[in-house]
Structures are given as C-alpha cells and as structure tokens.
Amino acid sequence: MNLINDFLSLLYPETCPACGKVLLMGEKIICTSCFYKLPRTNFHMMDQNPMHEMFAGRIVLEQILAFLNFQKGGMVQRLIHEFKYKNRKEIGFVLGEIYANELRQIEWVNSVDYLIPIPLHNKKLKKRGFNQSEEFAAGISKVLDIPMKCDLLNRIKFSETQTKKGKYKRWENVKDIFEVTKPELIKNCHILLIDDVITTGATMEAAGECLKQIENVKLSVAALAFTAL
C-alpha cells in the first residue's frame, strides 16, 4: 500500500492549499512556510481583544477567541475556500490541532467541559457533506482532550446564507433557529462554542443565548477566523 501511495504522490503530488506549492516530506496539509506565515490573532494572549468589543452588551461570555485574521483575498480566505467548498475537511482538522497546541498552556482551557460546534441545518449538511465547524472543533478536541458534543445543540430552522447581509439582517436571519437538545447534560458546565468564521457575531450570539438559558452555564466562544467589518 505504501508503494502505491508513493507512486500516486509522484503522479498527483499534494499541494499546500494556502500557496499551491508541492508539500515536502514531513509536511502535513500546510507547508512549513505558510505554517509560520499564518496570520494569527493571538487573542488568547490578550486580556481584551477586538472581539470583546463586538460582543459587549450583547451576551456575557467568559472568553472570546479566534485563531486567524481573515482578509479578503488573503491566505486565510484561500484556506477556508478549499476547506468549505472543495471538500478538504482535513484542512479544518489540522488548523484545529495547530490552534489547540497554542491554547494548551492557557489556564482557563482546563475548565472547559465540552466543545460544541455551531450546527448546520440538515438541509445544508446534506448538501455540503460535512460541518466545517465540527471539523475544526475535532482537531481542538484531539489535542486538548476535551469532549466534543455534536448532539447537544440543534439547528431547527434553515437560514439563508449570511455572506451579503448586514449586521441587523444577519441577526434577523439566525434568531430563534437553535435549540438545546439535552439541557441536563450541560447544566453547571463551561462550554466552548466553536464556529468557522465570525463577522458580526450574530450566529454565535443566537446559539450562545440558547445555551445560556440552561442553569449556570458558562460560555466561551472560539472561531477559526475573525473578519473585522
């Protein structure tokens, strides 16, 4: 099998989704150069970051994080495009692993009971084939050894794409679309809610408000990428 894989790799060499260069031996999904060039936010090292301002007055959160800065036409946009629309689930998983290795020395991470990825509606899940937030969360879960729960939060209404909507329209589009399926399991827990890209925070806010209706839930949020409006 290894000989077959080696032969196929000669015919169809694996390339880095960020820059397009052929991966060298030992490189995993992302080339070494792009790994070091990833535009990290380093929000986990700050007492306050731009996302705190975004959610201020909207919802009470323990911690607010994002791994990468998203810029139109940049490296992160290319990675996410390959991840979400070219069915390259492994990109999200590996980015989750990378981020988790940067978070593992942060003390508050040890207090998280569950990772909950933002769910997709069944209609969108069937069309895409996978949940991008779940893949990112799975990478984090593997490294930090925090259970990922995909059956505790459900998306009960189908919502239109958020891409071209303004802040208010995004909120109107997602309010009342989530439900907690097993509230008894998250009572008194610290939840880390995971999404792929945060722009206005409307989806995170809607899902977070739903989770915080459960008794004594502490909520933190983390995203693969953050894009400032």
Q: Radius of gyration over alpha carbons? A: 18 Å
Mean pLDDT: 89
Give the biggest sheet: 4 strands, parallel
Instruction: Give the helix tally.
Output: 10
Read across the widest sheet, the strand sequence of neighbours is 1-6-5-2
Unreliable segments of 5+ consecutive residues:
none
Helix coverage percent: 25-40%
- Rounded to the nearest angstrom, the distance between the terminal CA atoms is 49 Å
Strand percentage: 5-15%
**Global morphology:** globular
Structural class: alpha/beta
Order of helices and strands: HHHEHHEHHEHEHEHE
* DSSP E strands, number: 6
Q: What can you see in these coordinates?
A:
The protein has 229 residues and is of the alpha/beta class. The protein has 10 helices and 6 strands. A 4-stranded parallel β-sheet has the order 1-6-5-2, sandwiched between helices. A two-stranded antiparallel ribbon has the order 3-4. Helix 4 packs across helix 5 (89-103), helix 5 (89-103) runs parallel beside helix 7 and helix 8 packs parallel to helix 10. The longest helix is centred in the middle third of the chain and has 15 residues, at 89-103. The protein is globular and about 50 Å long.
